Amino acid sequence: MLITLDLNDPRPLHDQVAEAIRRAVAEGSYAPGDRLPPARDLAEALGINANTVLRALRDLRDEGVLEFRRGRGVSVLSRPDPRSVLEERLRSLLAEAAQYGYRHDDVIDLIREIS
Fold first, then answer.
1. Residue 29, Cβ neighbours under 10 Å: how many?
2. pLDDT at 3 exceeding the cut of 90
3. Is 13 left (phi over 0), alpha (psi -120 to 50) or beta?
4. N or C: which end of the chain has fewer CB within 10 A?
């Protein structure tokens, strides 16, 4: 799993980690039943605290995307709703656009130009 974090993103790191895992599952990189790498390994690869990764994993467990099994680690329970994944990506896009001074209407106009 390739996760990258944007340190300029105003969202908390655990939200970014959860979004990246959610997207990987939605895109099929992980299927239901697949095990994720240990939180400690993910944290080390990302250069962040293991508690940050654990918080992201707990959020995904609460959403029904992941399940924790004692002695077996964390595995994918179900694919997230594609609409919720898209909504999360749009929120991220709008937040980034706001950092550059773009309003929501400006982003909509850009999307129309590209489509």
1. 13
2. no
3. alpha
4. C
Residue with tokens 């709008």: 94
Q: What percentage of residues in the chain have a pLDDT greater than 90?
A: 53
22 Cβ contact partners less than 8 Å away, ≥ 6 residues apart: 60, 63, 65, 80, 84, 85, 88
Structure tokens, 54: 């654990």
> 97, 86, 85, 89: which is closest to 108 by C-alpha?
97
Q: Tell me what the pLDDT averaged over the chain comes to.
A: 89
Give the Cα-Cα-Cα angle 109, 113, 115 (nearest 5 degrees). 115
Rounded Cα distance between 2 and 45, Å, is 9
Residue 85 pLDDT: 72
* pLDDT mean over 45-58: 95
Q: Which helix (H) or strand (E) holds 68?
A: strand 66-69
Q: pTM of the full predicted structure? A: 0.70
